[in-house]
Specification:
N-(1-d-carboxylethyl)-l-norvaline Dehydrogenase, domain 2; 37% helix; 13 helices; Rossmann fold; 415 residues; eight-stranded mixed β-sheet
């Protein structure tokens, strides 16, 4: 295994969707990359050339592994060789829906003794404004091996869009900042090496807040269009045609599409960090709070709609098609399929699920569409390889949340 010297070496803490996408981009710009993760199974899988997610193909990983410019480790001490260290660990929610910084805290404590003087330390993990200044910096300094070393603290909230074949690190503008002028200059220079457009924010808090604004904006608008969709359905008005008509206005309108609720690691999560931070500071954000509540209650709204339309759901054979949070990505984090599954089960329905990209989910296996004649099929997500004709053939009635199924069969209802 290669052991590089400290020159043009980048350490990445966390080899998930964000971390591995960084590996790919930095490798393409001829950096030497050390990938650090505490998950031994994941590290071993990556070493064997098997990508754990869609941000990088197995064939690409094999090439990167064999280049001599990338190696993975579960030893934090290897980060001492890096001149830039990027923290890219998840910042999820607890089971109660509250912000959870435990993984970020653990990462900081583990790497702190091994971050050498003059290192540029960048946080890409999403969190509330002040995370770099008030959370990460104290943790690093408290756990440093050498309390006198000079570390340049900076941040650049990640903008990874899993499954996107067009936008990558290179052509997605990035927002960066640092605790002082030197850190801002260094983080700007670093990202400019592999990102076309870099915006330098005046403070880390501006950069951190910008990420929360981006996804809070999306949550509010998605929750709003779901509300509009419910109204249109009740009045027999085709909501997608309404959106198409409104989209002809060349200014002042941005189209959002209805669905079963929003999932993933950003949109339903980041607003919770902003709400918690605002509450801690005695500020109320009622519109954002309502949007988050609306998204979380979407499953019960759908279940109530089905009961109104079809009567009792007890004993009905129901198939949920698509349990990932978005098309063509095998990621089930915060998927709206989960609360919907539970809500339907609570009504006594016989609920099964199918997803061509997911074999095991919630301690159960993906059903075959042909296993039953489904009385109700709920199409939440369609992947490129989803068999639409099979769904129609084996379903009595389909409620389509994607707007992609053909209407000719007479069995499909758009939601």
């Amino acid at each position: 295994m290669m052991r590089p010297s400290r020159q043009n070496i980048i350490g990445i803490v966390g080899l998930g969707y964000v971390g591995l996408s960084l590996v790919k981009s930095l490798f393409e710009r001829n950096f030497i990359v050390i990938g650090y993760d505490t998950d031994e199974n994941k590290v071993e899988k990556i070493r064997r050339g098997h990508s754990p997610n869609e941000t990088i193909e197995d064939s690409e990983l094999v090439v990167i592994n064999s280049s001599g410019r990338f190696y993975t480790t579960t030893e934090a001490k290897e980060l001492a060789k890096a001149e830039v260290v990027i923290v890219a660990v998840p910042t999820p929610l607890t089971a109660m829906g509250n912000p959870d910084l435990s993984l970020l805290e653990r990462a900081c404590v583990e790497i702190a003794p091994h971050i050498k003087s003059e290192t540029l330390l960048i946080n890409e993990s999403t969190s509330y404004p002040g995370t770099l200044r008030d959370f990460i910096v104290p943790l690093i300094k408290q756990n440093q091996g050498d309390g006198n070393s000079k570390i340049y603290f900076a941040c650049s909230p990640e903008r990874v869009n899993p499954g996107d074949v067009f936008y990558s690190h290179g052509n997605t503008p990035r927002v960066v900042s640092g605790l002082d002028d030197s850190a801002r200059e260094r983080v700007h220079a670093f990202y400019s090496e592999f990102v076309d457009d870099v915006f330098v924010a005046s403070t880390p808090e501006v950069a951190e807040m910008s990420k929360l604004l981006e996804n809070s904006f999306r949550l509010v608008n998605i929750s709003f269009i779901n509300e509009i969709s419910d109204y249109c359905v009740s009045q027999g008005i085709p909501v997608r045609e309404v959106i198409q008509a409104a989209s002809t206005k060349p200014f002042g309108f941005m189209p959002f599409l209805p669905g079963p609720g929003v999932g993933g690691h950003c949109i339903p999560v980041d607003p919770a960090y902003l709400l918690q931070d605002a509450a801690d500071k005695g500020k109320a954000l009622p519109l954002l709070k309502k949007a988050l509540q609306s998204n979380r209650s979407r499953s019960s709204q759908i279940t109530s709609f089905l009961k109104t339309e079809l009567g009792s759901l007890k004993g009905k054979k129901v198939l949920i098609e698509g349990v990932t949070y978005k098309p063509n990505v095998a990621d089930t984090r915060e998927t709206p399929a989960e609360p919907l599954f539970e809500s339907l089960m609570a009504e006594g329905a016989q609920v099964h699920w199918h997803d061509s990209l997911v074999q095991n989910w919630n301690n159960s296996e993906s059903s075959r569409v042909s296993d039953n004649k489904w009385e109700i099929t709920l199409v939440l997500v369609l992947h490129e390889d989803s068999d639409v004709s099979e769904l129609i053939r084996h379903s009595e009635i389909i409620f389509d949340f994607t707007g992609k199924l053909p209407m000719e069969s007479g069995r499909v209802r758009l939601i």
